[in-house]
Design goal:
This protein is mainly alpha-helical. It has a domain at 40-99. The chain is built from six helices and no strands. It is elongated and about 40 Å long. The two termini are 17 Å apart.
């Protein structure tokens, strides 16, 4: 996997995170897998499915749904700045990358 020459800006407050070559490779592999546009209608359907999975205590389905739903940009940037890039890499960052292109 090729890593871009321009990496995302580092987290503002999580200074202890060190990203190795393999960490960056995993991050960009996950970007290809996870980041995609989700329409408003699809978001509604996914949120309803997440609520149903939560009521049934179906953690596996619930987790899969939240891998598809894009994180809100404000939530993504806050988690990244406080806890580091590794903490958000498993989520869909499509909307966050549009709002903060140099951060993700």
């Amino acid at each position: 996997m090729t890593i871009p020459t321009q990496l995302p800006n580092p987290p503002k407050y999580c200074k202890g995170e060190v990203m190795t070559q393999s960490d960056w490779e995993r991050y960009y592999e996950l970007r290809k897998l996870r980041d995609r546009y989700v329409s408003d209608e699809e978001r509604t359907d996914l949120l309803n499915a997440a609520i149903a999975a939560s009521v049934k205590n179906d953690k596996e389905t619930y987790d899969k749904i939240y891998e598809v739903l894009p994180l809100l940009p404000s939530v993504a940037i806050t988690i990244k700045d406080l806890f580091g890039i590794k903490m958000i890499q498993d989520f869909n960052l499509f909307d966050a990358k549009k709002r903060y292109p140099n951060e993700f």
